[in-house]
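Re: [ENG-882] Designed sequences occasionally contain unexpected residues at chain ends

Forwarding the minimal case from QA. Structure tokens:
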């Protein structure tokens, strides 16, 4: 059974690295809009058995339930890696044989991007990695089995995940998907978003906030 797993933290604390450009309320709104984009893209997947969210954030739980997603309830959140590994172990109990982890801050992600990742899955132990735009982070990871190795999200995570995969001897593939490569963490990401995301809901809101003027000031 193949699952897609989306970890969601309390969005009131989201996107701290944008605090010089956006207010707390704007950062929360931006994160929520990207969460909605991610959920909508995930809901359209055909090559998946179940969708799941690991979180303690009530609004995310409510939205996940509207989409018919499984909810894995956390009692505490220490890190993205801890949440993903906890969620993956819980999904193994529910019959998961592979898990695709996806973050919520991908404003351009589409269903076909997720289908592409799943299309690279193979029989036997394997890993599929999608790097971040700068080539150092891990913006999506498919592991079969789900607990093949522990998560190391954060700076330099791609090389850490590659090392872990090598230790297991599992087949490993790195694929480049531009829409998944763009996550919004730094001011520079907002500039790329305004160049590449025209017409999306997130782009429209950033335009209304005059984000380009803020970036140039």
């Amino acid at each position: 059974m193949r699952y897609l797993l989306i970890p969601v933290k309390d969005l009131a604390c989201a996107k701290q690295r944008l605090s010089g450009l956006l207010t707390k309320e704007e950062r929360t709104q931006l994160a929520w809009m990207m969460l909605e984009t991610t959920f909508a893209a995930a809901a359209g997947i055909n090559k998946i058995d179940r969708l799941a969210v690991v979180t303690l954030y009530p609004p995310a739980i409510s939205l996940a339930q509207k989409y018919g997603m499984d909810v894995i309830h956390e009692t505490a959140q220490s890190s993205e890696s801890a949440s993903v590994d906890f969620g993956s172990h819980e999904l193994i109990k529910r019959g998961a044989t592979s898990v695709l982890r996806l973050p919520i801050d991908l404003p351009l992600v589409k269903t076909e991007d997720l289908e592409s990742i799943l299309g690279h899955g193979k029989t036997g132990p394997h890993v599929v990695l999608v790097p971040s735009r700068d080539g150092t982070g891990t913006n999506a990871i498919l592991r079969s089995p789900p607990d093949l190795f522990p998560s190391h999200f954060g700076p330099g995570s791609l090389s850490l995940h590659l090392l872990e995969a090598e230790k297991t001897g599992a087949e490993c593939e790195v694929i480049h998907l531009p829409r998944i490569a763009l996550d919004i963490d730094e001011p520079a990401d907002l500039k790329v978003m305004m160049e590449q995301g025209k017409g999306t809901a997130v782009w429209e809101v950033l335009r209304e906030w005059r984000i380009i003027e803020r970036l140039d000031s």
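QA comment: On inspection the terminal residues look reasonable. The first strand starts at residue 2 and ends at 8. Proposing we downgrade this to a documentation issue.
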